[in-house]
Design a protein that fits this description.
CATH architecture: 3-Layer(aba) Sandwich
Largest sheet: 7 strands, mixed
Organism: Candidatus Colwellbacteria bacterium RIFCSPLOWO2_01_FULL_48_10
Main location: cytoplasm
Protein name: tRNA threonylcarbamoyladenosine biosynthesis protein TsaE
Helix content: 25-40%
Bound molecules: adenosine-5'-diphosphate, magnesium ion
Keywords: ATP-binding, Cytoplasm, Magnesium, Metal-binding, Nucleotide-binding, Transferase, tRNA processing
GO molecular function: ATP binding; metal ion binding; transferase activity
Distance between the termini: 11 Å
Order of helices and strands: EHEHEHEHHEEE
Number of strands: 7
Number of helices: 5
Length: about 160
């Protein structure tokens, strides 16, 4: 099942990010492993903007930028916001492959239920991600401030 939503401005994208973050916060950790959000979309689609608002909602105060040159940035979550989660990780998978994931012990991050992991360009490492990954695909709309978001779980 996919839920599609036309977002007409960055403000609407932020509202969706905030709402979804609240849902994940409400749900808390899964007993199966990390909570993974896979973000898919071309440059400028809104992956980083979405992540920024999502992480702010979880109480992350640090400046959130595309982690392009670091692969992954990790943030401890403040107790009052985390509801059982401990850390959020913001990954840029644009240039990483299976070997790089192994080197950074990505499997250990995935195994720990207390992690919430947001991954830009997640389709590039699809094989390494759990079935429970929540996929968010985003593309440009007809107007320059429009984005089309598609939310889904898939096998
Ligand atoms: N509806 C919208 N949702 C998200 N971003 C938008 C929207 N309309 C315009 N933008 C702009 O598009 C850009 C998205 O950039 P960014 O979040 O860095 O994308 P990505 O990480 O996917 O490359 C930002 O400059 C943002 O202001
Ligand atoms: Mg980005």
């Amino acid at each position: 099942m996919a839920i599609n939503k036309l977002l007409k401005s960055p403000r609407e994208t932020a509202a969706l990010a905030r709402t979804l973050a609240q849902v994940f916060m409400y749900l808390g950790p899964s007993h199966k492993g990390a909570t993974v959000v896979g973000l898919v979309g071309d440059l400028g689609a809104g992956k980083t903007s979405f992540t920024k608002t999502f992480l702010r909602t979880f109480g992350v105060k640090t400046h959130v930028v595309s982690p392009t040159f670091v692969i992954m940035r990790s943030f401890a979550l403040p107790a009052r916001k985390r509801n059982g989660f401990r850390a959020a990780h913001h990954v840029d998978a644009y240039r990483i492959d299976a070997r790089a994931l192994k080197q950074m012990n990505f499997g250990e991050y995935l195994a720990d239920s207390r992690n919430i992991i947001l991954i830009e360009w997640a389709d590039r490492i699809k094989k390494a991600l759990p079935k429970s990954t929540f996929w968010i695909e985003m593309g440009h709309g007809r107007h320059h401030k429009e984005r089309i978001f598609s939310l889904k779980f898939k096998d």
